[in-house]
Specification:
The protein is 43% helix and 20% strand. It contains five helices and six strands; from the N terminus they run E-E-E-E-E-H-H-E-H-H-H. Belongs to the NrdR family.
Length: 155
């Protein structure tokens, strides 16, 4: 660790502690050259993958945009804020645990659809209609039949 005062390359660790929140390691250091003391923190750095859009452009993963998409699909639906937060967390965890540096926007859309299907069928169909660019009523009917099973036969 380089000394922030004299830029000397050798420093000595005097004390190591876990932070109060438990999310970092605090180290008290002393420069062996100028004898000044300073503190460093060691934290986990988790980077979300970059999202590759259909047109090939790349953008940072935006959890605010993801939340807004889910909330739009869930508008006026009986889904709690806690359930929404848990769904968002599951999506983020899947993206992080993939270990990929880049992820296709279509993959993010599929993760969203999977969570909406679990939360609320109407929200799922709302999101799917936009995400899959439904062109006519038949596509809606096919999606609805997925949930209700095959149509009943007339006798």
């Amino acid at each position: 660790m380089k000394c922030p005062f004299c830029q000397h390359e050798e420093t000595q660790v005097l004390d190591t502690r876990v932070s109060e929140e438990g999310d970092a390691i605090r180290r008290r250091r002393r420069c062996t050259h100028c004898d000044k003391r300073f503190t460093t923190f060691e934290r986990i750095e988790l980077a979300m993958p970059v999202v590759v859009k259909k047109n090939g452009s790349r953008t940072e993963f935006d959890p605010v945009k993801l939340r807004a998409s889910l909330m739009l699909a869930l508008r006026k639906r009986p889904v709690s804020a806690e359930a929404l937060d848990e769904a968002l967390q599951r999506i983020k965890e899947k993206l992080l645990s993939s270990g990929e540096r880049e992820v296709l926007s279509g993959h993010v859309g599929e993760l969203v659809m999977r969570e909406l299907k679990r939360l609320d069928k109407i929200a799922y169909i709302r999101f799917a209609s936009v995400y899959k660019s439904f062109e006519d009523v038949a596509e809606f009917q096919n999606m609805i039949e997925e949930f209700s099973g095959p149509p009943a036969r007339k006798k």
